[in-house]
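dude i think i finally got it to work??
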Amino acid sequence: MPHTSSRAPRALLLAQLSNAIGDGAFYVSSALYFTRIVGLSAAQIGIGLTLAWAVGSVAGVWLGHLADRRGPRGTAVLLALATAAAVASFLFIRSFVPFLIAAAVYATAQSGLAAARQALLAGLVAPSARTEVLARLQSTLNAGLAVGAGIGGLALHAGTRHAYLSIFALDAAGFLLCALVLRGLPSVPAAPAATAGEPRLAVLRDRPYALLTLLNALLLLRLPLLSLALPLWIVERTTAPGWIVSALFVLNTAAVMLLQVRTARAVTGLPQATRAVGRSGAVMLASCAVFAVTGAAGLGPWTTVAVLGLGAVLQVAAEMRHSAGSWQIGFALAPAGRIGQYQGFYGTGVPVARTLGPLLVTTLLVSWGTPGWLVLGAIFLLAAAATRPAVRWAERTRAQAPATDGATQLVGAR
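look at this
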């Protein structure tokens, strides 16, 4: 069992921060660079990123398996270098096909890096401390994204080719620093290879874990809610001033930075995790109902701002509960020798929510209006409520599995 030292979490936090600053700047400025400077259409960018993250989602499971079998530290270092190379290649993109290839490499390396780092964390941090460390990583991520977004804003203000290219260089340098930091961590032994008759990717036959991954992806529909659907709703359906969009984003980021660690401390096992996720669904339903009120006729601008603020507070409270519970579930139900592939599979919820979620969420909210908010809230509530029986199912399959080494058990395959 790993023993947590102060060195490993600090190094993981530094690696996260270096990525987050560069990625924050990249996310803010990349779309405008490819449209204004390179000349790609919005449709080309959307299609390219959707295909890229679809490829990355599938590849992430295989790369997580590679991290299990070859060792997570070395795999994570190589994937950080691959991500840096992919970002650097954007400096030379001039047309759609090279953009698509570079984006696919970027998404694949990012997905694999996330899985490998989770396996590395599991090998260096004691189970009792993982949720708190993950909460600190999430807070660091938000802080880095905020700083990076500010830097990206400077590039947008300048609007020149060189300003945009400096952002790509910054992001690539961040991943190089990440690789250097991860290389300095202690090595985690590779898991033994599967024995004869066992599948290489056991996670694909673990039906309870697949169900939990699906439920988690539904709960992650909150990701395009704040970044895309809610801004559109505010502009098209409410009387609130446009600046409230930025204010709500700052509120969310600050709350996660300040309170995520405290929220996660209460989640120390599967019972607490399922309870946290269940409560997050109820709070998200309440948040959606509050947001729906802002579309009512006759609601003044400042009243609308106050109601939007209440909805945003409820939303971020639900987000932090869901995050803490989800981390615990994803780790606790992964066999010891297969954390990389299991985390790679569980992590597909993020790109799925980011690629398919915008269409679903904007259709519900912008097209359906107030009823759409209630439908979305019901989706959150039902997905959260279904998590508890799904966790119990997963626990039963593990208890019924043959009493062999946890690294080679095939669970959930009945």
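The chain has two domains: 7-183, 202-400.
im so relieved honestly
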